[in-house]
Design a protein that fits this description.
Blueprint: E1 2-7, H1 14-23, E2 27-33, H2 37-47, E3 50-51, H3 55-59, E4 66-69, H4 76-85, E5 89-92, H5 100-113, E6 117-119, H6 127-137, E7 144-152, H7 168-171, H8 181-191, E8 194-202, E9 212-219, E10 224-230, E11 239-244, E12 247-252, E13 255-260, H9 261-265, H10 283-293, H11 303-322, E14 326-327
Parallel strand pairs: 1-2, 1-4, 2-3, 4-5, 5-6, 7-10
Antiparallel strand pairs: 7-11, 8-9, 8-14, 9-10, 11-12, 12-13
């Protein structure tokens, strides 16, 4: 049984992650720490576990094997460095840290202390993403020229995101830093190594962070990726498009269809797959198994993947703030 401490209830996914750990049947929550003691104590009581007001005291506990980091994004570096140096396995909400330099510092501590590290990239587990990756690698779409991923909701315009979500000193960014992570790590997964990036963002309704953002990325293989995200989108379906010289894949709101030069030879237009790959286990389940079995960070959701996302995020914000395309 993996013994897990929850570090902060700041993130909107914190309660869900706690449930996910318990639902594995292979983990238990033994303690809570929070940068806001009153919130943390209340959550600990709800979970029926100890609350520790001092992080180092919590990290010294014998009944803590691993931590789940849901602190404000700007606190990740300090908290994760201390967790790694205490020898605790780490599961963290994205993004890993605000800069690539900070990510590299965390990576060094994780490696030096031999802890298992997993970042929450759940969309990589989706059957449609695995299907797209498989067909790209098989060359079924020819040379991939464009990939577009859109992930957006109306958290600001619908007035349902918490106010603290827009405190830049805590969150370090807005829609691009939050929802935009998912399109960005999918683009890196599907397209490879980035060459340059242009970020455009604005705050239409006036919150202190970006509410609406698009990043355009040129990859070394010649593909151009587009990451779209927003806190202002009414009823916007999640969208993935893959365009190549010999084929196309479209996925929107759960419906997938594709067409290639080979299917066209059979006088078929767009078709739906007969079957899709099985969905991978949730990153938390993979994390728990890796910690228990001592198998190290699972493929696709480890430190290398976390840093790849940070490279895109940091440089997209630099582009947005300077108005210039950034060479990576």
């Amino acid at each position: 049984m993996l013994r897990v401490a929850m570090l902060s209830k700041w993130h909107v996914h914190a309660e869900g992650y706690a449930r996910d750990f318990l639902e594995t049947g292979k983990a238990e929550i033994t303690a809570v720490w929070d940068e806001k003691p009153e919130r943390g104590a209340e959550w600990a009581q709800k979970l029926g576990v100890d609350f520790e007001s001092d992080l180092d005291t919590l990290l010294a506990r014998d009944d803590v094997d691993a931590v789940c980091c849901c602190t404000p994004t700007t606190m990740h570096t300090d908290v994760l460095l201390r967790a790694a140096k205490a020898g605790k396995h780490i599961f963290t909400e994205k993004t890993l840290a605000c800069t690539v330099a900070e990510c590299n510092e965390i990576a060094k501590a994780v490696e030096e202390n031999g802890v298992t590290f997993v970042i929450s990239f759940p969309h990589k587990a989706w059957p449609v993403v695995k299907f797209a990756k498989e067909h790209i690698e098989n060359g079924d779409f020819g040379r991939v020229t464009n990939v577009r991923v859109r992930n957006a909701h109306n958290g600001v315009s619908g007035n349902w995101l918490p106010e603290y979500w827009f405190v830049k000193e805590d969150c370090a960014g807005g829609a691009m830093m939050d929802l935009g992570c998912h399109p960005m790590y999918l683009l890196a997964y599907l397209c490879g190594k980035p060459k340059k990036i242009t970020g455009i963002a604005n705050s239409v309704l006036g919150t202190p962070v970006d509410e609406n953002a698009i990043s355009v990325i040129e990859f070394e293989n010649g593909a151009i990726g587009v990451s779209e995200t927003s806190f202002l989108a009414y009823s916007s379906p999640y969208t993935i498009e893959v365009h190549g010289t010999d084929g196309i894949l479209l996925w929107q709101g759960g419906e997938i269809k594709y067409k290639t030069t080979e299917t066209a030879k059979l006088n078929k237009g767009f078709i739906s797959p007969d079957r899709l790959p099985d969905e991978d286990e949730h990153p938390i389940e993979r994390f728990v198994d890796a910690c228990i079995n001592g198998t190290g960070s699972p493929a696709g959701i480890g430190m290398k993947d976390a840093i790849e996302l940070a490279v895109l995020l940091e440089n997209s914000y630099i582009s947005y703030e300077t108005g210039k395309t950034v060479e990576i």
